[in-house]
Amino acid sequence: MPAFTTPTYTIAIAPDAARAALEPLLAAAGWVSTDTAPLVRLVDARREMTTLAALAGVAFEEQSGLLAIVTNDAARDTAYDAGATHAVVGDEPAALLRSLRFAGRHARRVRRQARARRIDEAAPGEVARFLAARAADGTALAMIAIRLTRFDIVNAAFGRSTGDALLAAAFARIVEALSPVAPRDRQIARGDGALFEIALAADEAALATVVAAIETALARPFDTGDAMVNLGARIGVARAANGGQVDDLPTRAREALEPARDGGAVRQAARSHAAPLARLAADLHRAIERQEIAILFQPQVTLASGAITGVEALARWDHPMLGILGAETLFAAADRADLGAALSEHILMRALGAASDWPATLAELRISVNVTAADVARPDFVARFLDHVAESGIARARVTAEITETGLIGDLDVAAAALGALREQEVRVAIDDFGTGYSSLAYLKALPLDYLKIDRSLTRDIAGSARDRVIVRGVIAMAHALGLATIAEGVETAMERDLLAGEGCDLYQGYLCAGALDSAGLAALVAGWMLNPRPSPALSTIAAHR
Fold it and tell me: In terms of Cα–Cα distance, which of 319, 509, 481 is closest to 402?
């Protein structure tokens, strides 16, 4: 999308006949025509008020001034009743330009106020008071956190005014999606940036309906005038039982937004009283038998070319009572049931099986599958892994074994021998989540590797302070010195991508490209990506971020 800065004085004129007549005058006075969140919407209402009434809602959502040209003072009152913020009798140039200045001043003041507190938005502290008061009544409560994705790209491409207008439009859609809930049963607050938080007094069924409505509303593209923009959204949900603890609801909902490689649009936060692992372990037996564990794929993008060149396979279990559970919970339950090896093998088989059925457009993608420290320690690990790859028909060179951070590798010599055997058979090896937890410099020294995956906590640091950036730069430089390619996880903004490219990072995955997708969604994404490739950022862009 082309980058431009939204002018200070923007106007949309209706109907078309009035635009043709008035545009030269207004252009000479410094007004620039646009249909994208203009500062003022000007309507010639001398013939009829229908157009004015139709645009009243649009102007309200945009926080634009709505100036009506009318025939007399009586019509001025009618225009105000139809939704005009200002009205002028006739189109005499001096009077018209003066009224436009008043309408523009009004719109700027409204937008400044709106940035601090949106219409229908709770005042500071109201959400906490609402939760405490309704919890005392024994009401079932929930918290929804919504973060718009790709918002930084919109701001960079179209300017802050358009970005603010899109935030207002998104807020209006959220409010509309909440319309089935009585105002007394909800509170809406704005967090930092593109974060919205909603407290609800609602049972589980009503909550599900509201979340689905919000997801649908925000999935529709937003019209910037120059392009249709899909902002995308992540939604985190936390629930409290009747009379249960509510103090941690906002924190749990926000934590559910963390991108931890799961890519789903909606995530349920774990309840404070999470189900015992023993119960999950029993259910897991049946889930494996019934093929209930789904495999999704998150794309990986090569920074130098901007092309999608690989995916990471991710396991998801849609538990009938607890909703979507990710790999961490899956393997914790599996360890409790002594099913760790069976679960790893099941996921490997399903991921390779799905990839073997991919269409030609995906036939060259690398596929990364997770293996645990316990898997690598098994004597038959290498043979069974290679057998499954052979059964799938996928070339070994397309497969990467990614060691996940599920536990400390106890015997580095054994692990090194197993991973070395895989590499001898052209399977590649990656170390996951480098920079946190168990991943350490000792692994880099001892293990035969091809890729180092930079943990998302470090990825976020790339856009932080100069000190943070030095650490990320050092990790990338160290990996390259050891002959390893680097993959940055959790990349969500164009700035993070550009800075990583500038430091020499090789690949990235994250919401900037896409979350986790099924095979059909992946095929559609790659097909569209090939038609509209995302080239690596220009050196000038990278330099500007440094």
Answer: 509
